[in-house]
Amino acid sequence: MMYSEWASLSSTIQNGSEENYSVLGKLPSAVGKEVAISVVKNLVSNLGLTSQPPEPSSLSTDKEVQWCMEVICYGLSLPLSEHDTIRDCVNVYCEWLSAMESVPKICVPKPICDDPNLYTRKIIQHLHNLFVPRKGEDFSFTQEWPFLYMMEYGNYGADIINRQAVLCHRVLRTLQNMAHKSSRITRETWEALLLFLLAINDALLGPPTLKEDIGDQLCERVLSALFEVWLLACSKCFPPPPLWKTLRESCMRWRHRIALVEQWNRVCLALTARLLEFLYGPTFPELKISEEDAHLCPLNMSRDCIAQSWFRMVHTIGNPVELCQPQVVSQTPPFLQYAISSTNVVEPCHHPCLTILPTIYLKAIKGVASQVDAFLGIAQPLETPDLEAEKKDTSRAGSTPSNSSSPTPPLQRRLAKSFSVAPSAMTKGIPKAALIGLTSSRSSTVHIPTTPNSGPPSTSSISSLGSGSEPKPALAPGRSRCNSILHTYGEWLFEAAHIGYTSSYHVKTGAQPEGSVQRPSSLLLDKSGLSLPPKNPEQSDLPVNLTIDRFESGKAEAYGALCRIFCSKKTGEEILPVYLARFYLALKVGLHIPKDKMCGEVLSSILLNSADLFRCDLDGVNVLIPSLISALEVVLPEREIKMRSALVSRTELRRASIQLLLSLLSLPLHYQNLPIKELCPSADKGIATHVTFALLKPRLMNVLINALQVETDSLNCQMLLGGLMLSVQDSATVEESEKVNQPDSAAGPESSSNLLSSGAAAASDNYSLADFPNISFTDVLADSAVGGVKFCFDYPKGLIRNSAHALFVRATYLVCHRLISSWKQDLNVSLAALELLSGLARTKIKETDALECKRAVKWLCDYISYQCSRPPPSHSKDLHSSIVAAFHCLSTWLVHHPDLLKEKENVMTVMEVVELGISGSKSQGKPGEPLKIKEDKELKPVSMRVRDAADSLLTIVMEQVGNVQNPCSPATMSSMLDEVSLIKYCKGEDVKKEKAIEWFRYFIVDNHILLALLEEPLGNDPDPVPTITAIVRNSFGRYLWHFELRDLPRSKAGLKAEEKDPGRPLPGREKPRRPKKNIKFYPDAAERIPKCKMDSSIPSMDSCYSSDEDMASHKFLGKLVDEAHVREQATSKKEKSQPRHPNYECKPPPRKTEIQTSRLFLSSLGLINLDGVEGISEHPQLTVIDSKMSGFAADLELLDFMSPRTWDTVHLFYVRSKQTTAEQICNNVLIKDGVDPRFLLFLNTLGWPVDVYKHPGWTGHVATSWKLLERPKDLPTEDKNHGGSLFNGDHQVIYWADVGSELAFVVPTLKSRHLTETSAIHANPDLAIPGRPLSAQGMSTDKPSRTLSLDLEKGPPSTISGTSLTGGKDSPSAVRRRRAAMQDTKVVVLWVENFEDTFKPPIADLLSVTSTGLESGPLLRDRQDVFVIYLHPLESDLVRVKLQGPAGSKSLSFAIPLVDGMVASRKVIGNLVRQTALNICRRRRLENDAQHAPHVRRRLKIQDFTQRYKCEMTVPELCLHLFNKINPNLV
Length: 1531
Known about the structure:
By secondary structure, the chain is an alpha+beta fold. The protein has 47 helices and 18 strands.
């Protein structure tokens, strides 16, 4: 003990001194009373307390003053019934104490002014009489304690107690003011003052607490005065060791008073706050305490004084763990005297006032835990709802401190060695109200902080729970090391964690003498057991309300503090093995699951504070995994958790448990068959079992899926969905890499149950969804029953459990089911579920279940139909965002599973949903409704965004699903040929864009297709035929079609005759003889058949004449025919008689080489009709475009520059330990030795490398995207010994794309060409840079110039330059808002060697090297909307993930599959990062409903062509335009 060699002054303060007694006490009480009344009345008349002014005192000598003080001393001891006299005595002394001030009051006697310290000490000793029992009022031998003035004891009622309390308050206030203001106090006076305060506190607080006694009323006041004056004395005249020892002994006698612990917490936190200021510097997070508590420590206290005072104050109340032992707390003389004199109390520990010990113990441990949190740099404000238990125990209970623990350093250790003094980079910003509740007088409460998207676990233990969901504070980078904190507080915390526990395995702490300085350095296990806290008495020896289970809340606080300490381990930090062993043993005990499966406060506290337990490389922590999984099985799979404490937030408990689960999911496949050692091996070696990591996978999957089935909280569901995607992806990757399926685990009883169902395992073994194909997908299956058994989906028959395929099937079913039944009202969960389904669609799994894929598509269509059919009041931006996301998810499934559209049922289902999205209704309505013809339907889509999403899905189905990818895919979905390249093939010359378009005819079809027609042959066919080449530009890209009009197919083109005409063959010399035959039209027998009436049914010609004129006309006609016949015969004879001309021959006409193929092509498509007057209708489908107008070439290039897919960029950085500048970070990747080899492997898993000059897609910068360029001559050669700098965009980037998105991964460096070019662009917007489009180079046109090609992305083309279609001008603020809304999403990935570097990275500096050319201003260093993904490699070769979003960002922006705190395998981390970045960008686009999809922007740009360049033509003008030949002059 630190004061073992010093004498204690406890006997002095308990027995008093002779100075406290007056000579008048030896006289009869009536005489003394009369003298005191007379003298004091005269003295008080000169004080000026009434209307009269103060007068100088008539006391001029020491003898006179001392005589009067004897009288006043006796007056202070008068019975309380003489209140006026006592009050006057107090007034006289309080006025005389002004002698210690620099200017005493006029009423102070001159001798006192001459020697103020001497008389002040005497006055202080006399004032002691005010606080002690009076003679004749001693009830010590009755049933109550002497110093009680209750109403039942005659005249001493509550009013008298209140009057006495007022006088005591005045005395204390006067002494406090004197201590603060006086500069004349000597050491002797300070010691006398401190002894006085100790004495009155001991007199008031030493006896057992009884309700409404004077001690209860003044308890807080006298304690606050004691500690305040004590700290003042420390700054001005540091108390000697005897006084410190006396203070400690006295406080240990007052530990049954709850106010003592509250004041102790106040003082310790105030001193801790000052201690942190100089230990860790101003950058360390400030410990926020109330202003009143902050003033407890004088500003002039030196650092050494603060440190010494802090250490002594921490140990003032002794070992806080003893507060859970009533027999120890009650071992004081007052308790013993009460037990002896009372007939109701057998033992001192049975006193009724000790029933509050559980609350006191909780507050003490909370106070210690608050100090632990302060050294960790975390603190949190408290909410203090009332606790009914405390209301019953005491009329006034202090509010609970924020997080609690207890400190006890090894004895006689130097303070400086107890802490790791390291500078911190954390800024101040902890809420001001943090820990204020420690000193309030409201009842204790329990509050739990929320688990956020980034940072360490919650700072609150089980007793700090609340229903709010606030971000938890982060650990300070410069916090103390774990060993330092454990040296100081470890003994108390470990002891508090083991209270009430006995086991054959005990930690032998080696009970050392109090003066020993040896630290425990090893863990000794033996048969005799471990030395635990002093053995508690039997339960029968204690009252029912003081059994050890009543102290579980404090025990839970100790566990919470221990977990926070060990989870705060820094990267590379070492913790002593003895501490790790004791911690693991404590957790093994705390994680024990009772038979009733109840979740107690200890278990809750462990789960709430251990989120980082498996993320910080603790040695040997894997021994806790089996026990921890058992704890998770109690919390997560149950819809209603069985809780012992109603104050624990079930949502927060489940959230913390999910965080733990996410850190465990990757372990089974990572370690596989590696055995897990038992922490406490069984004594019977014959029954020893070996648990491997692989055997834990079924249990983890059970917990994960069951938790997802019952979870109702939105954030928790999203976290579980991310974990499910991790599990599926991890299993599929391992199976693909090792070509080995997961074995059918023999993990005992757990493996026999359904891996993914939450109950009714027997029923699920007999029924599966495959057995009931007719069940409706939209039914809520959880409420349906099949065969009298609750329906529960099981694995398809023959499917291996625990395989990736099995998990895929179960995950698809479960997520689809909950999406349509439970999550459709929650946008965030719906988006997360749709992202998971998209990820499942992309996952490569052998033997994917076609039926399950079909179900997924059907359920997605049902989801879209349900959302679209909701009533109008329910339609909102969020609802439409979920529908758009569902359409995207549906397209992903169809693209990756094209066989789905081979079934007619699937095609009908998808097309119905597309029709619903585009038109707002289905042609085939509900059963019984008539069929609606599409031409008769009114187009009323749910929203334009939904219509555009459905249109995109329709295009993907028609163009992409099942089609063979073109040679450029997936780099581009469009043809790479344009006008310039076609003219080059046609004419063999290189021309500029402006000249190339002169060879083309341009038309707009249906106001959204730009058609360019070239009638010239391409020159690659030796057989010239009518040909036309069409460049089709629409919303989804640029396509090229070549048409030829051939008589024969190409396959038969080689059978034609030679080019030279062989001539007609010569006729034969002999003419063939033809026999003459009489032709008979009827057989001979026909003439012998007799005629009947039917033969005369056809009248003769003569009978048909109605008049003579008809007969004459007929004869004239016959005459004309005869004459023509005669002429023909004459002509024939003439030709036969004349010889044939030798040069006359029939030859085919020459082939026409000039044909208006454009006219034929447009006519064939039905776009024009030149045969009638309907050539151009009122609303023509075809619009002629004037390509000769100024700016057409630039706008055409701008349209080609607009990708039909979304494009995003992810910038990756490698951060070495303790690096804080962008220059240091960017230089790491220049050489291979500057990075971890795992970083390079990670880059390879993100996509595939592409050459930015040969790549037709997005490259991360607009200068090199969507075009093929020549490599600059001044470009430096590629460095083969790079650490990732090759992918900085100068040579290569890492690229990934699908049918709807492009993603470029760039590793920036300071020497990037793009960085230099972008800076030059912002300095000079008109600067021409090779490779940039004309529109991006400030080309001068008639229209407003466009700076950078990004103007096309700032909104519809009609508003690119701020001019609307109506001709109006947008305001500059509107243009700025539009541009800000359309900015690209910044996603940054930081690979950090030291996890502490994630707390304050130089993001603002790193943004300066993340230019994509899309920025509207000079590189936004102050940009806030940045998403950061931190990846920290652990020693186990796993990767820890931390996510950080923009400040104040909506939860909509946080996407899965990555979840903050997740631990993933390196094999899948690349895929997960890519999916998360893609989903983040998609969510950001969904947040901004004013942002158009890429294909919509292209459509609007084409519509802008109609407005800008259309030609108004009549029918003749259109005919003239089509028949005119195009013949430009090539230059």
